[in-house]
């Protein structure tokens, strides 16, 4: 695991014991949830009781006071126990980190951000994200009606859906040639239902089902943001550098766990040059993933939302993806036939790590975005 002192260096609350306990708890159930596609509800129950759910809420508002670096360390270590637990919680964590960042750095937003953050701390609310399928282009229909909007939408990849209280999402209205409205959708509303769709190659315990919204009324005063459709916006320049280090800390943790398993298996074999070469290739890929992830955290810590900061985060995201996947692949090679058995865990980690490919910006779009900035071309519509 990564250095726990690094995990806790800036936290107002000590999360180490809670984190370690959840690693142990979730590791005990990971194979079960993977085997039957069941949601990691037990992990969420513990996260609420232990204070991990509100770890990212400022301490001044009753939360754990963890910053981005600390949250990344927690999620990275949780992935050593259960990939699905860590990934699902990363989606909640980045939705908390965003209003927390605004509370700290944009005091003029506190009338909107503070009530939500206090509720997370007091009520242990679970926030959901509508995922990469609901990115800058937006999705779903928002019909303007008297006093607000009537929303109909199907939202995919809603990780943690069975435990969620509020879905932080958006929908598109034809106003001004296409406008995206952002709002919090109450999961308990009768117009909202969870569809049993999450039956996948990996990350099976995340409960990332589709959510159906059928005619939900959103009052005008509950619309958090309005923005033009299909273009980068200041909201996303703020969100992306915060969200993606958290999400990709999970994949780094998966790679580290696979590496440790493979080394444990290989160390029982006779020492050979081939064994050393395989281990060296694996550790080199892992070192590259760690360096890339550190660059993502550094971009977030600049606290300077811009296309340039997003570019740094997305270059790091792509390099973590590539090298974390390579690490797990090479762990399988190093472990040999023993790693092919389910009991070794490597086959599950190999499936789980594949999900790193699918978050924005996917590799082709990321390369185009980076290229546009390098060449001085417009990047506002590259997403």
Task: Please describe what this structure looks like.
The protein is built from 11 helices and 8 strands. It has 383 residues and is of the alpha+beta class. α4 (68-78) runs antiparallel to α5 (83-105) and α9 crosses α11 (363-375). A hairpin with a 2-residue loop joins β2 (141-145) and β3 (148-158). The strands form 2 sheets. The chain has a 4-stranded mixed β-sheet. It has helices at 4-8, 16-36, 41-50, 68-78, 83-105, 110-123, 234-266, 273-301, 307-335, 346-353, 363-375; strands at residues 127-129, 141-145, 148-158, 166-173, 179-186, 192-195, 209-219, 225-228. The chain has 3 domains: 4-125, Orthogonal Bundle (Butyryl-Coa Dehydrogenase, subunit A, domain 1), CATH 1.10.540; 132-228, Butyryl-CoA Dehydrogenase, subunit A, domain 2; 234-375, Butyryl-CoA Dehydrogenase, subunit A, domain 3. It is 51% helix and 14% strand. Mean pLDDT is 96; it is low at 1-11.
Run of helices and strands: HHHHHHEEEEEEEEHHHHH
Indicate how many domains the architecture comprises: 3
Query: Helical segment tally?
Result: 11
The pLDDT mean sits at 96
CATH class placement of the largest domain:
Mainly Alpha
Low-confidence stretches: 1-11
Please give the order of strands in the largest beta sheet: 1-4-5-8
Task: Give a summary of the structure in a few sentences.
With 383 residues, the chain is α+β, with helices and mostly antiparallel strands. It contains 11 helices and 8 strands.
């Amino acid at each position: 695991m990564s250095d726990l002192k690094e995990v806790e260096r800036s936290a107002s609350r000590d999360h180490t014991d809670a984190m370690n306990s959840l690693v142990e708890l979730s590791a005990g159930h990971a194979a079960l949830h993977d085997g039957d596609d069941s949601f990691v509800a037990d992990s969420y129950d513990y996260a609420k009781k232990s204070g991990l759910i509100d770890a990212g809420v400022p301490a001044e508002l009753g939360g754990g006071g963890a910053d981005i670096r600390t949250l990344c360390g927690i999620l990275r270590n949780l992935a050593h126990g259960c990939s699905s637990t860590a990934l699902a919680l990363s989606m909640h964590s980045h939705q908390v980190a965003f209003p927390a960042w605004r509370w700290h750095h944009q005091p003029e937003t506190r009338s909107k951000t503070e009530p939500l953050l206090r509720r997370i701390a007091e009520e242990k609310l679970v926030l959901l994200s509508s995922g990469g399928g609901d990115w800058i282009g937006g999705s779903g229909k928002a019909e303007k009606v008297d006093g607000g909007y009537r929303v109909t939408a199907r939202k995919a990849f809603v990780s943690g859906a069975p435990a969620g209280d509020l879905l932080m999402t958006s929908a598109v209205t034809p106003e001004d040639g296409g406008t995206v409205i952002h709002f919090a959708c109450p999961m308990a509303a009768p117009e909202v239902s969870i569809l049993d769709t999450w039956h996948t190659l990996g990350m099976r315990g995340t409960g990332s089902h589709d959510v159906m919204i059928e005619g939900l009324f959103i009052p005008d005063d509950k619309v958090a943001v309005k923005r033009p459709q299909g273009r980068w916006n200041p909201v996303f320049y703020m969100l992306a550098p915060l969200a993606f280090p958290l999400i990709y800390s999970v994949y780094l943790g998966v790679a580290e766990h696979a590496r440790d398993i493979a080394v444990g298996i290989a160390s029982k074999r006779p020492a050979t040059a081939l064994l050393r070469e395989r281990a060296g290739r694996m550790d080199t890929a892992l070192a590259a993933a760690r360096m890339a992830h550190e660059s993502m955290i550094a971009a977030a810590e600049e606290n300077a939302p811009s296309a340039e900061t997003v570019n740094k985060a997305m270059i790091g995201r792509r390099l973590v993806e590539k090298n974390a996947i390579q690490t797990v692949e090479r762990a399988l090679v190093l472990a040999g036939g023993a790693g092919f058995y389910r009991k070794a865990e490597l086959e599950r980690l190999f499936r789980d790590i594949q999900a790193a490919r699918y978050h924005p910006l996917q590799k082709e779009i990321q390369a185009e975005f980076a290229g546009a900035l390098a060449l001085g071309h417009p990047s506002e519509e590259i997403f």
